[in-house]
Amino acid sequence: MPDSISFNLNGRSVSIEVDGERPLLWVLRSDLGLTGTKSGCGEGHCGACTVLVDGEPVRSCQTPVREAAGKQVMTIEGLSSNGKLHPLQEAFIKHYALQCGFCTPGMLMSAYSLLLSNPNPSREQIVEAMEDNFCRCGTYSRIIEAVRDTAQQLRGEA
Amino acid sequence: MKDDNSKDLRPVDAHDGASMSNSFSRRGFLQMVGGGIIVFYSTSPVALAQERGSRESRYPTDFNAYVRIGEDGRVTCFVGKIEMGQGIITGLAQMCADELDVSLDSVDMVMGDTDLCPFDFMTVGSRTTRDTGPRLRRAVAEARSVLLLLAAEKLELPEDRLDTNDGFVFDKNNPANKVSYASLTEGKQIERRLEGEPEVEPLAEHTVCGVEYDRTDGRVKVTGEAKFSGDIRVDGMLCARILRPPAHGATLLSADTSAAQKIPGVQVVREGELVAVLHEHFDIADRALSTVKAEFREPEATLDNDNIHAHLIGIAPEGEVVEEKGNLAAGEKLATSVFERVYCNGYVAHAPMEPHTAVADVKGNKATVWASTQGPFSLKDQVAASLGFPAENVRVITPFVGGGYGGKSRGQQALEAATLSKLAGKPVQVAWTREEEFMYDTFMPAAAVRIRSGLNDANQIVFWDYVAYFCGSRSSEPFYAIPHYRVVSRGNWGGRGPAGPAHPFGVGAWRGPGSNSNNFARESHIDLMATAAGMDPVEFRLLNLTDKRMIRVLKAAAEKFSWTSAPTPSGRGHGVICENYVDTRVSTIAEVAVDRQTGGVKVKRIVCAQDMGECVNPAGAHAQISGGITMGLGFALSEEIDFKGGKVLTRNYDTYNITRFSWTPEFETIVIDNKVDPPSGGGEPAITTTGAVIANAVHDALGVELLRLPLTPARLKAALNAGK
Question: Is the peptide bond before B665 cis (omega within 30 degrees of 0)?
């Protein structure tokens, strides 16, 4: 029996009829057509599927869509507004903090969430917050720089 | 692969009966791309063979590069290579911008589409910049000459009075008298085919190459707009999950799909041993597969990580001499001390973040396939053969590839999608799970290298007897000044399929194929001799090197590191290595801290100096160096496939530890300013130094011999206990 589930997705309300046990990841990618969120390991290890639910990073491959009901869901598609990139996105480009780009949406969501809760993270705090996001191309050192640079900018110090 | 590559991913029916890999359909191509100036360029196979050795002699006598200057003045380069993170989407565009005197942002790249792009070999071996780059430059140079010709007519001036700048042809005597490329191409479709060798801009005059540019694919990759194969949606598409055996070599005895069939929307496809469940949504197909009850017969398993190297050495073919000089026996007579060791490396997965994925749409006798692949043209032929279609009826389109590292050369997932699409009568997506990715990956092969060598009283290496087992020949040639040496390669790094009786599963190219094992062996052995000589490892290398470019990178790295002389093992945890990767010279220095209780290694600092000839995009080159070494820390310290015969026990990232944020060392990377040598490529050289440099640094810290990668805590503790 499908459930009727409503939540706010990137600032717009959506209502869908789906089995509430289905993973949020696949409802986003398949039913709602938002393919920016990626599937990397299917078991919640790698962080490619990271989205924010009420500002908190979750592994959407391990999150039943019913858990999003009534909440604010933010995906990579919601990070820029009206074609204007978020400073974090600009910093990722500037610091070469991406290569193949497959982990990038998850990285950006984790980093964005970190900056929401901690506008001035140390290197260690960035590493701790991002530790479960994997990048096979090896851009970690550049992501750390991009996050620090963005934090500085958002605090008006740049 | 333009920024808006999602726009034009529908099949375009432009075939006129000729296979492009044999004779490209120029008419179809011209219809598809519209007006403007189009230059086709082909390099003769003879010229190519001279250019880069015998391998290129297989290159077809077809067009190797095209460029189009559109009526809007935009320039489009069509290349058969693919973008998987290495950054050629930017580097090749820079080359084009340089040659044509236009800004980088007016260049669009169309890559890896077999209907739109000229044939090219797989995107492997750091070859794009050094091999495809020059061909593209020549096509673009010809396009520029056409523009000069058109401008000469329009401005009524002789061609030698004209020059180009920023998208305009102008009169050298009166720069205000100029005409834009856009206006020159307006209303025309000019097609040029070029056979000769047009003059390209001399290296010293490059103004776009050598300058740091942001990745041109950066914006679509930070917004989630970038399309990977799994993001392709075709009307009516179903997602497939395929029943897999528990081990390579297992045979299916029975499969009961009745429960899956009852799930609404599920389509079951069976043909022979192929059993698949299909559904509109991946996760429901996945759930349906879990209801399938199957029985398999597994073959007896004997090989594992404990006996694999003895097995490989025992089964190795006779092999071939890669290179030799002097006479080993004569060399040994000069030696006052002799060293012999065997160095081993395990199976290592590519583990790209994007698992193998493909969408196939088979309609009638035509197929369109979107695939995460490093080889769109070889895949096109494979798909055609598999479906029994003529090659010209198959189009392969390569969206962005989410990491390849050599692992996306084989195309199994695309063949599965094509077969299932044909059987199901619908477009089908096959996206491997992480478990399937570990099962069907073509691993870096387990390998062994036996080295026997000798030093004279002056600490010069006088002979070097080198036998590589299953790691091919790349990086096996010693670049040290050794009077008597022989290098024998017994068994390659695999080819693209299961490697017969040698390995229990598929092995193949892994970022710097063979070199990771060969470098570990060679440079560990160099440090073994430096240790015996009581010498500093930098000084020992300098004493035995005559290659000027190698000496330059070694000195550059040592200076940046502030290396101070001390015999190894010094207890400091400092390691150094040198590498010549197909003409790119690299020297890497590492500083590590080792916990003697746990055997854990923390890599604190990496300095890497690289001479890659001309560097097209320094920002990209530095990113490839630090990225490659970061990735390489995994195979140096932890990555090793666990297996029992054909059963791959490693299933996911919880038991396969790739490099993570907390491992990240401080990086200082140097790209030598070289305006003399042509570009020799930079995607692979740095990573191949990682295992060796970490091993030498750990040896310097602990003073124990390390003969096997990865340097897991368990192995280090065992080595420490053995040394007590």
Answer: no
Q: Is residue B360 part of a domain?
A: no
Instruction: Specify the 3-state DSSP secondary structure of B574.
Output: strand
Strand partners, B271: B274
B582-631 per-position pLDDT tens digit: 999 999 999 999 999 999 999 999 999 999 999 999 999 999 999 999 99
Report residue B195's pLDDT band, with 50, 70 and 90 as the boundaries: low
Q: Is B485 helix (H, G, I), strand (E, B) or coil?
A: strand
Per the CB < 8 Å rule, is B658 touching A136? yes
- Of A156, A143, A25, the closest CA to residue A89 belongs to A143
**B205 and B327 together in one domain:** no
Question: Contact A148/A60 with Cβ under 8 angstroms?
Answer: no
Which structure tokens are listed for B521? 């062996």
Judging contacts by C-beta atoms under 8 Å, the chain A residues touching residue B684 are none
CATH of residue B518: 3.30.365.10
Residue from B3, B88, B219, B353 whose CB has the most chain A CBs within 10 Å, to mutate: B353
> What tens digit of pLDDT does each residue of B491-515 get?
988 753 344 679 999 999 999 999 9
Nearest CA in chain B to A102: B402
Domain boundary among B211, B246, B274: B211
Residue B484 domain-assigned (yes or no):
yes
Domains of chain A: 3-78 (3.10.20.30), 87-154 (1.10.150.120)
Percent of all residues in chain B with a pLDDT value above 70, rounded to a whole number: 91
Chain B residue closest in CA terms to A40: B353
**Distance (Å) from the C-alpha of residue A84 to the closest C-alpha of chain B?**
10
Q: Is B422 helix (H, G, I), strand (E, B) or coil?
A: helix
CB contact under 8 A, A93 and B284: no
Beta bridge partners of A51: A58
Query: By residue range, what is the domain housing residue B582?
Result: 316-348+443-723
Establish if B199 belongs to a structural domain. Answer: yes
Are the Cβ atoms of B353 and A34 closer than 8 angstroms? Answer: no
Q: Is residue B696 part of a domain?
A: yes
Beta-carbon separation of A137 and B85 below 8 A: yes
The interaxial angle of helices A123-130 and A104-117, nearest 10 deg, is: 130
B322 and B195 co-located in one domain: no
The total of structural domains in chain B comes to: 2
Residues B186 and B330 in one domain: no
- The CA distance from B221 to A137, in Å, is 14
CA distance B660 to B463: 41
- Whether the CB-CB separation of B94 and B620 falls below 8 Å is answered with no
Nearest by Cα to B75 from B41, B49, B105: B105
DSSP type of residue B679: P
Identity of the amino acid at B388: G
Domain boundary among B179, B211, B243: B211
Gap from A90 CA to chain B (nearest CA, Å): 8
HSE value, Cβ hemisphere, 13 Å, CA-based, for B339 = 27
